[in-house]
Amino acid sequence: FMQRTSLYEMHKKAGAKLVDFHHWEMPIHYSSIKDEVLAVRNSAGIFDISHMGQVFIHGEDAEKFINYIITNTTFNKMYNSMVYTVMCNDKGGVIDDLVVYKFNENKFLCVVNAGNVDKDFRWMKENSSQFNVKLTNNSGDYSMLAVQGPNSIRLLNEFFPSDVNIIKYYNFVEANFGRHACILSRSGYTGETGYEIIVKNESARDIWQSLLDRQEDYGLVPCGLGARDVLRIEAGFPLYGQEISDSINPFESSLNWVVKLNKEADFIGRQRLKEIKDRNDKARIGFVMELNKVARENSEISGEEGGKIGYVTSGTFSFNLGKSIGMGLVQKKNVAIKKIKININDKFYWASIKELPFVKKI
Question: Where are any strands of DSSP class E within 63-193?
Fold first, then answer.
């Protein structure tokens, strides 16, 4: 059955085009994807990301347990900090990418991808038996709003006057939005300055409306998942199921930096990741099409002389660059080449390999 966020009626009333996204009825756009993308880059946009999952971990072994299931580390992190990481299986494939919120050594929050909530929670439970921890899947209780763009600081400063300016990138505070208790974090999946507000479902509508009431002063527009996808490709961020998956390891996805092979705690997949680190034969690339043809997922990539060297994982039209861009996985030995050809509707088109991200802001 189709799930709906607590903001569903507001999206419908605002005329959003709604689509099925991992069994959630979500807005793909309100006005147009182009207008929403440009608003986030130039002023501000607000997204409903309540379909994301929230799993809380409590207990005296909470930090040990977290570090057993993730490849990154929280041991050297302060309270109220966040870590981007992946959870791997024994073969080194990625179960999910997630953001871990560290309240203290005994309390953590994992924000996971919508399509993976049940799988992730099951995996966590299966691997928790030797730890003194309590896991709670609170995904049905919380809403998440993302406010992204250069004006997001000034806008949120109206509602969180003592907090917004002091939160560093990948940190969070527990704060109040009027009478609503929430978690305010600073990260963002767009490449822009951005914040997330995590709040109980019953508070979400009031906060969404209060922010949109300030629309004109800050150039704030409601945005759908279409704009979110374009923005994350421009920023060179991977998406689970495309750039990373159960069969794609973090080294292939150019996520070496989230794998701490020498951290003080053993973790699931560590041995396999050590073995494949230097023998890994794939790499993630960015590319720009010479003609404005959009290369879609799974399109074949060939070298300059022909012959398949990989495939497209994500492609879109960048409204900021005025060009078609994308990412792909190719054989590592081909990373140094400058030109590739991509098969679009049985015809090959030239593209240039470009360093990620395409749009660098943060």
Answer: 81-88, 94-104, 107-112, 134-137, 142-148, 171-177, 180-186
- Single out the residue of 195, 201, 149, 154 nearest to residue 175, CA to CA: 195
Distance CA 362, CA 358 (A): 12
Listed residue (262, 241, 353) closest to 304, CA to CA: 353
Q: How many whole angstroms separate alpha carbon 155 and alpha carbon 160? A: 9
The pTM of the whole model exceeds 0.90: yes
Q: For 264-280, how does the pLDDT look when each residue is reduced to its tens digit (9 = 90+)?
A: 889 999 999 999 998 88
Give the strand pairing for 17-21 and 24-29: antiparallel
Contact 155, 220 (CB under 8 A): yes
**% helix / strand / coil in the chain, to the nearest 5?**
25, 35, 40
Residue 83 corresponds to which tokens in the numbers above?
Answer: 């870590």
pLDDT, tens only, 227-253: 999 999 999 999 999 999 999 999 999
Q: Which two tokens stand for residue 206?
A: 């009031």
In which element (H, E) is residue 272 found?
helix 270-276
Render pLDDT for 71-98 as a digit per residue (tens, 0 to 9).
Answer: 999 999 999 999 999 999 999 999 999 9
**Secondary element (H or E) of residue 313:** strand 308-318
**Phi/psi of residue 331, each to 5°?**
-60, 135
Over 7-71, what HEC string results? CHHHHHHCCCEEEEECCEEEEEECCCHHHHHHHHHHCEEEEECCCCEEEEEECCCHHHHHHHHCC
208 three-class SS: helix
